[in-house]
Amino acid sequence: MYKNIKKSQHPMNAHLFKLFTKCIVLITIIFSINIQLSHADKSEHDKQYIVGFAQDTLANDWRRAQVNELITEFKKHPEIKLIVTDAGGDSAKQIQDIENLAYQKVDVLITSPRNGVTSTPAISRVYKQGIPVVLITRTITSDDYTTLIAPDDYQIATKAGEYISKKLSGKGNVLVLRGVPTATTAIARTDGFMNSLKRYPGIKVSAIKDANYLRGDAITQTEAAIMENIAFDAIYSQSDSMAVGARLALKKAGISPKEKLIVGIDYINEAREAIRTGNQSASFVYPTCAKETAEIVLRILHGKSVPKIVRVESKIITKENVEKISPIF
User: Fold this and answer.
1) How far is the C-alpha of 284 from the C-alpha of 60, rounded, in Å?
2) What is the pLDDT of residues 242-252, one digit of tens each?
3) Are 164 and 236 in a shared domain?
4) What is the pTM of this model?
5) Start and end of every Periplasmic binding protein domain (predicted)?
6) Does residue 216 sit within a domain?
C-alpha cells in the first residue's frame, strides 16, 4: 500500500519541479530585462553633451549679457557643458575658435559671426561634418546652418528710418553710428534705414561712422563728427551702447542730448532712463535671444526637429510705453 502511494505521487512531483524550473527561468529573464532597462535609463540620464559658443567679443555689454543668459539657461540642464570662447572682436580669431570647437567634437556649435562672408567657409565645413550649427542674431552667406535665431534687423531699421523722418517732419540730417560693418546685423540695419529714407527726400544721411557696437568707439566717432563740423539733427545709433557713447560726446562738446533726436536699438537700462529723461527719443527692443537659443539646442540634442529660422519679436519703445516694458538688461 505504501509503495503504491509513492508511485502515484512521483509524476506530480516531476510536474511541480518542471513548473518551478520554468518560474525560475521566467523570473531570471524578467530580472535581466529590468536590469537592462535600468542601465539604459541610467545611460540616457547620465549622457553628457558639449555645446560650444564661439562669441564675437565680450567687450560689448550686450554680448556679455547674451553669454551670461545662455549660461543661466544651461545651468538648468546639468547634462550640458557650455564652452564659451571670446574672439575679442577679431574675425580670424573667431574662425579659429569655430574650428577648434569642431575639433573638440562639440554636440552643437553656437556662433554669431563677426564677418558673415569670411566665416561662411568654416561654418559650412562644421555643418557638413554633421555638427548642428545654431546662428544667433547674425547669419552667413549660405544655408549651411541648422537654425538662425534673430529679430528682423532690416524691418527694425526700416521702422527707425520712418520714425526719425516723421519726427523731423521730413527734413533734416542724420548721423548714423554703425555697428560692426561686416556683421549681417549692421548691414541689414544700414540697408533697411537707407531704403526707408527714399520716401523722404528731405532727410539726408550726413555721415556714417563705424563704432562697432562699442560705447568707447561711439564717443570717438561722435567727437570726430563734431570736430569735422558735420551737421546732424538726429543720431541713428545701431545699438544703445553706442547711443550712450554719443550722449557722452555731445555733453563733452557742450551740446545737450535733448537737442538731438536719438534713436537706438536693444533697449537696455540706460536707454530706458534716457527715454524717461528726454535724452533719447526711442529704442527698439532687441533681445539677446539666449532663451530661444537654449530651447533650440535642447530640441537638437533630443533629436527633435527645429525650424530653419526663428524670428524673435521686437517693438519700438518711446515715452508712451517706456514704463510698461522692461529693458532686456
Assistant:
1) 18
2) 999 999 999 99
3) yes
4) 0.86
5) 51-303
6) yes
